[in-house]
Amino acid sequence: MHALTNCTIYTGEEVLTNYAVLIENETIVDVVLQEDVPKDVFCFDLQGFDLVPGLVDLQLYGGKNGFFVRDLSEESLTDMVQTHRQDGTVGLVPTLYSTSHERILKAIEVTKSYMAAGKMGVLGLHIEGPFINFTKRGAHSAHAVRVPTKAEIAEIIASCEGLLTIMTIAPEIWPEELLQLLQESDIILSLGHTNATYEQAKGYFNSGIQLATHLYNAMRPFESREPGVVTAIWDTPTVNASIIVDGYHCDYATVRIAKQLMRERLFLISDATLAKIEPMRFEFEDFIANYDGHRLLNDEGKLAGSAITLLDAVRNCIHHVGIPKDEAFRMATMYPAQHLGLGDKFGRIKAGYSADLIVLDSNQMPKSLGTFR
Question: First CA to last CA across the chain, in angstroms?
Fold first, then answer.
């Protein structure tokens, strides 16, 4: 056993000073007063820095070199894990944008194989499209977006058995029979890339959909006489939504408004197409992303994902949106872990939880990363 001492501990529930975290076998044993640390325990002095649960990212597509939907390899997943771990993401959900049925099945197979081998960092799979609304496809491939068939959905459901899976869909394009089939499965459904009306969205939420993908982006917006999907999300207490806080996908003022309305229902994703890269042009099939050092745009000028890490989003929330530090941490730790059904393992510094923790300075820059054993 060892102890992490001399730090400010963001437990997910409170902020503690003059406390220590006891760890054994990669698991938190207890959080105790520093004076109560057993004398025979080795202590790591964290020099007054912040100790935070590892971050959990439910939507990202690549790392520095790997782009999962292109590579469909365990090496690509390893690159994603290693790239984002540098900024404190200890659990991630690799995401597919709209692609062929064959590539979806291959992605499921590769993800399951990676996780079965006991490799750390990947928590499940997010299938974002292709069963979305063509008019709200954003940078998704125009050739890949489509209405689902029964054969496709049945095979995806069967293939995803035993794998934590999120699927972003536009329910208004789905045949009712197939939507019901999907809702009866274990796949977590998220409303996104949708042109549903307020009334339609409320109906989908009332039928059991509990998540929405990247609030404001690729969905019918708020208008005074046409409330749209955005208002339906605000107006439904059981619905949680992700948001991309990179300064480009939505203005910081709109993030602040959403946070005031939704409180703990709003959580962060990176939406990273690639991360920690130099300016470049990226192409795969008909997906194009031009990175100018700040944002990714396709040749039509549409945003093509982000180039941030989840920790960048946390910093933006603190320094630009004005969200208190402890709450910004929760938006990238506790809340996403809960939405994936892993709230009993990640997102808190508490006895029984993963000791995959991060140490940050006062500007939320990483000082130490990884599992404390």
Answer: 8
What are the binding residues?
128, 139, 193, 214, 217-218, 225, 249, 303-305
- Indicate the annotated binding residues for substrate: 139, 217-218, 225, 249, 303-305
271 assigned to active site: yes
CATH of 55-346, one of 3.20.20.140, 3.90.1170.50, 3.30.420.130, 3.40.50.720: 3.20.20.140
The residue extents of the domains of the chain are 2-51+354-360, 55-346
Specify the pTM.
Answer: 0.96
> Which CATH code for domain 2-51+354-360?
2.30.40.10
SS (H, E, C) 237-282: CCCEEEEECCCCCCCHHHHHHHHHHHHHHEEEECCECCCCCCCEEE
Of 246, 271, 312, 356, the active-site residue reads 271
pLDDT digits (tens, 9 = 90+) for 53-99: 999 999 999 999 999 999 999 999 999 999 999 999 999 999 999 99
